[in-house]
Amino acid sequence: MSEPQAPSSGPPASGAPASGPPRRPSLAKRAIPWLLAAACFAYLYSRVNAAAAREGLTAFTFLANVFATVNWVAWLSLMIPYSFFFFLVDTAVVWRVINWFNARVRYRDILPIRGSAYILSIVNEQVGKGAMALYLNRRDGVPGWEVGSSMLFVMFCEFYYLLTWATIGYFLTGDTLPSEFALIPYLAFGALVFLAAWLLYFSGRIGAGITLRERPILLAFRKAKLRHYLGIVALRSPALLAAVVVYTTALHLFGVEAKFVEMLGYLPVIFFGAAIPTPMRAAAITLWVTLFPDRPAEMTAFGIVQHNFFIFFNAAIGMIFLRRANRELLEERPAET
Questions:
Q1: Dihedral sign for Cα atoms in the order 88, 94, 97, 102
Q2: Residue 315: inside a domain, yes or no?
Q3: I want to staple 169 with a disulfide (CB 3.0 to 4.6 A). Which of 72, 113, 158, 265 is the partner?
Q4: What is the pLDDT of residues 41-88, one digit of tens each?
């Protein structure tokens, strides 16, 4: 690993963002996630209602019957340890990137802000990342633009991490996956070509006249080498492999048969859906029903509790660290001499 470089002084004042309150997104932009969620839930209701009608039941009763059959103690014994494990892995990713590109920070000092950011992420994941930038700026003096750059790097690597495992899952179980999954190898190839060009551009080997790479928000990409991208994919991977075991076992509790190797193909695509900004993770829930079309009630119930428990329990983990995070955000840093 290369030694972290000292934080740069950033661009001149003329390149700084304009002062004043940030502009609120337009009404149309704020409405889009809700409209997508409404469309998803309308689709889910139609599928559940059709299955319930065949049994002579209402959609509500049909779903209630599914919930009544689940062993919730066994389900919680899966989800609670997995949520803590994910939190530790997720924090390790942020810690590693901050130490690569910004400043030397101990792992245990990242835990409070990463956990507390989960509370804000209930509303908006990007707000949670912004809170981490503010925390590191106040606590360690790291310029906000530099931390923002590192968070962009994490998000960029998240795409390649999921695509890597989606591709592995496809080659292991392609014959059992829906036909649409045949696009995954082509997407992976295109993503690799893009990554090669991306690395060449930020190393200065191509696009010498394009100054985009000099922007402060792209600092992490200027510093990053291929080993950094591969390192984040490797560091993230235990969380996905654990999820394969947890989600497959949880599906069995909902009366749905699935194999571990099949879930390796499904989960990366589901997690892509979970990244779509829709309330209640509606897009991810809809994908479960699409992938298991013969079990709409079970998959709707499964998707709702699985994804939303994960979000809210992570926020509960954040509450453990909230007092410390607030204290370190609000206390005055001693003046440097």
A1: negative
A2: yes
A3: 265
A4: 899 999 999 999 998 989 899 999 999 999 999 999 999 999 999 999
Note the pLDDT tens digit of each residue in 87-126.
999 999 999 999 999 888 899 888 888 888 888 777 656 5
Residue 87, CA distances (Å) to 81, 118, 178, 238 in order: 10, 9, 31, 12
25 is a domain residue: no
Q: How far is CA 193 from CA 46, 186, 222, 320, in A?
A: 41, 11, 18, 43
List, for residues 154-179, the tens digit of each pLDDT value.
999 999 999 999 999 888 887 777 78
User: Which residue, among 317, 7, 281, 313, has the nearest Cα to 133 in the 3D structure?
Assistant: 7
Q: Is the pLDDT of residue 5 over 60?
A: no
Q: So what's the pLDDT on residue 216?
A: 85
pTM for the whole structure: 0.83
Report the C-alpha gap between 223 and 99 in whole angstroms.
12
Task: Give the tens place of pLDDT for each residue, 205-217.
Answer: 898 888 888 888 8
Q: Which residues have a Cβ under 8 Å from the Cβ of 146 and sit 6 or more positions away?
A: 7, 8, 10, 101, 102, 216, 219, 220
AA letter at 125: E
Q: Which residues contact 120 (CB under 8 A, 6 or more apart)?
A: 127, 128, 131
Q: How many CA atoms lie within 13 A of 17 on its CB side?
A: 10
Length in residues, the chain: 337
13 belongs to a structural domain? no
Q: What is the pLDDT of residues 11-23, one digit of tens each?
A: 443 334 444 444 5
Number of Cβ within 10 Å of residue 175's Cβ equals: 6
Residue 41 lies in a domain: yes
Count of domains in the chain?
Answer: 1
Q: Of 320, 278, 250, whose CA–CA distance to 88 is shortest?
A: 320
Host domain of residue 102: 30-330
d(CA 38, CA 17): 36
Helix (H) or strand (E) holding 298: helix 296-330
